[in-house]
Amino acid sequence: HCRFFASTTGYEGGVPPPLSRSDANLIADSMLRKISSLSDAPSSHPIRFSAEVLAARSGEGLADGQLPPPVIALESTIVSHGMPYPQNLDTALSVESIVREGGCVPATIALNEGLVKVGLELHELEDLARSGPESRATKCTTRELGALLNRTALSPGSWASTTVASTCHLAELAGVDFFVTGGTGGVHRGYEETMDASAD
Question: Comparing C-alpha atoms, which of 106, 113, 117 is closest to residue 162?
Answer without folding.
Answer: 117
